[in-house]
């Protein structure tokens, strides 16, 4: 899922290490006291570029997480280029891959992040995996060191008033929302799921409350919110989030931040991966919270002190830094792409090709932005 900034359109989890353990006078090894958190990432895959699991895997591994990547499509490149090759992974194939993991006891995941899934049957297959992992925890009990299993669901369906998934995907997602712990719809997807048109902050808050009420979703972050003045400053975007209270009422926070006047691909996938890590980090900083159902804070925790609010602040900081550097690199990428395409097969004449290449996230060069962002954003009240 792409997030367009400026035009249109998540106790530290880092694990300490034991000192070196001497085996003999000449040999020493470093033994970790715990394995790193393990995430099952379910999303698209492209051979070239940075969307879907290409983003999620790199982001999570760079932040110290072990990733089991289950790909829902295998494409040469993302579809924004206008042409691509590859195959969609069927629902049966998704189930078969999961069965293979279970056969070898490789289903020992702490979290699950699901993104783009093509087709209602495939969405159902992914949902079945999440439900199975939750049932497994209920059967075996919660590991006090690893905390409860947590499912982050990005219901990728569309953007800017347009649905770009197959018929049946919207109701398929609606049937799964009650099983997710954290849901990450964009503004348009929040409208689809809640049935409420979002025109201002009040209607956005109403939509979030409706998601809590209709689907019992514990945590929600609505991304890529663009509202007309005076509801939002010109040249800015917003996210709004909530962690529900025990009485079902939303605890709302918002973060307004300057947009970047450029188009980017893969930002929704980056947001999802970052919030997966940062949410766990914030939760494990609160003693005992990782053992609570869906990692829900007690009712006395105000909205601006929620782990979800703290996590979202850090996520947006990293996003802003990466996107700023990606924008700064665009002139060089455009020039190089035009030259190489002209020399090869004239692809520069195809509408959107050069822009799509320039919109690819400059992630590898800017991994420091994930770990130590320089931007700062602070959650505020509604």
TrEMBL record:
An example Gene Ontology biological process: pyridoxal 5'-phosphate salvage
SUPFAM superfamilies attached to this UniProt entry: Ribokinase-like (SSF53613)
Alphabetized UniProt keyword annotations: ATP-binding, Kinase, Nucleotide-binding, Transferase
EC number: 2.7.1.35
UniProt KW Zinc-finger keyword: no
GO molecular function, one term: ATP binding
EC top class, as a word: transferase
Domain Pyridoxamine kinase/Phosphomethylpyrimidine kinase, residue spans: 150-278
Cellular component per GO, a single term: cytosol
CDD domains: pyridoxal_pyridoxamine_kinase
InterPro entries per the UniProt record, alphabetical: PM/HMP-P_kinase-1 (IPR013749), PyrdxlKinase (IPR004625), Ribokinase-like (IPR029056)
Pfam families xref list: Phos_pyr_kin
PANTHER family documented for this protein: PYRIDOXAL KINASE
Protein family membership: Belongs to the pyridoxine kinase family.
UniProt protein name: pyridoxal kinase
